[in-house]
Design goal:
The protein is α/β, with parallel strands linked by helices. It has helices spanning 10-21, 57-62, 106-111, 143-147, 179-182, 208-221, 267-283, 287-290, 292-308, 313-323, 326-334, 336-353; strands at 3-6, 27-30, 41-46, 72-80, 85-99, 118-120, 134-137, 151-164, 172-176, 186-191, 197-204, 228-241, 245-246, 249-251. The protein has one domain: FAD/NAD(P)-binding domain (3-Layer(bba) Sandwich). The protein has twelve helices and 14 strands. The protein has an eight-stranded mixed sheet. Strands 6-2-1-7-14-13 form a six-stranded mixed sheet, covered by helices on one side. Helix 1 runs parallel beside helix 7, helix 9 (292-308) packs parallel to helix 12 and helix 11 (326-334) runs antiparallel to helix 12 (336-353).
Length: 357
């Protein structure tokens, strides 16, 4: 059986790893000249957005990819609205992972597990690849689904990242919510190493010209001063597909609609969808049916995003006040089943009872 994979990111490499373990040597095409993201950054994996049934993690565990090493385990998360600040502490609130070209990135950790044959600097179109039984679209983009009219755009953002020399404690993350400089998105500061941190601002419905204003507004409002090693900007779009498979093309990761449009950290779902695509090919399973639980979970988070989009600035403070109460903290951060099933219900209840003037 001949399988092509377009994209050597976490989704494509996870898929390739499982295919190789099943005796299939996939042909991997990567448009860049290297493994990893174009920009080294630290990605968050927050336990508040992981469900108790482990619909993503079970696939990683099944194929031995659940031991990817993080930069650190989060023990403190500081969340700030326009006026309200909340700090959550716990033994394990989530993880920080390196992404990019560095040797400890998630991509490199997967890559080192097998002898992958990758054709670099090959920007292929999955629709024009011939001679393959299956094609995996792991490009991280909705380009091909858009051509097929099966893509619905959910969130369009511009992301500005800065590598800064001012370190934060290795077990601490900071997140800001303020429509003044994020519109309906957020900003965050993560540890990257003992000597560096990564500062990121995500703004929806903005242009690159707008981004200069929002960045300066963000730094001024939060009184942030730092020495930047490097800054970069990129467009990032999240969408949903009518179905994750079209003929012999299986869509994984962000290209398959597996990234939620609230926080948008798609590491876990990206790896899981790549693994699942390979499993379906090896075992002749229906990918659309098998992927349905994952996509339904993403839809639940997207519902939460739809509610957040209706908020004014003061509503963020009220939501943080609600999330900061001791009882709610215990339920959300220490009970995985509760947080997965009831996250949106919590926000809706807060919106009805707490946000009314």
């Amino acid at each position: 059986m001949k399988v092509a994979i377009a994209g050597a990111g976490i989704s494509g490499l996870s898929c390739a790893y499982v295919l190789k373990s099943g005796g299939i040597e996939p042909v991997i095409f990567e448009k860049k000249g290297y493994i990893g993201e174009v920009f080294d950054y630290a990605g968050l994996r927050l336990k508040i957005f992981e469900n108790g049934k482990d619909i993503f993690k079970k696939y990683l565990k099944e194929y031995g990819l659940d031991d990817i090493k993080p930069v650190s385990k989060l023990k403190k998360i500081q969340m700030a609205g326009p006026k309200r600040k909340v700090t959550v502490r716990g033994r394990n609130l989530g993880y920080v992972y390196n992404r990019g070209e560095n040797e400890y990135s998630v991509e490199k950790q997967i890559y080192k597990r097998s002898d992958f044959k990758i054709q670099f600097k090959k920007n292929v179109d999955p629709l024009t690849l011939n001679g393959f039984d299956y094609i995996i679209d792991a490009t991280g983009r909705g380009t091909t689904p858009k051509k097929l009219n099966i893509w619905t755009s959910e969130l369009n953002t511009i992301i500005k990242m800065a590598n800064i020399l001012n370190p934060v404690p290795i077990d601490t993350a900071k997140i800001w919510f303020d429509k003044k400089y994020t519109n309906n998105c957020f900003a965050f500061l993560n540890p990257y190493s003992d000597s560096q941190s990564r500062l990121c601002l995500i703004v929806d419905n903005a242009t690159k010209n707008d981004m200069k204003y929002y960045w300066e507004k963000f730094l001024t409002e939060e009184k942030l001063e730092f020495d930047a090693v490097e800054t970069r900007e990129m467009y990032y779009e999240v969408g949903m597909l009518q179905k994750p498979q079209y003929n012999n093309i299986l869509f994984t990761g962000n290209a398959g609609g597996f990234t939620d449009n609230f926080i948008g950290f798609g590491m876990l779902s990206g790896m899981a969808s790549g693994i699942l695509a390979a499993k379906c090919i090896l075992n002749k399973l229906d990918y659309a049916i098998e992927a349905k639980p994952m996509l339904e979970y993403v839809k639940k988070i997207n519902k939460f995003r739809a509610l957040i989009n209706t908020f004014g600035r003061e509503d963020y403070d009220k939501l943080l006040s609600f999330l900061g109460t001791p009882v709610i903290k215990q339920l959300i951060y220490n009970n995985p089943f509760f947080r997965a099933v009831n996250l949106t219900k919590i926000a809706e209840k807060a919106a009805r009872k707490k946000f009314k003037k």
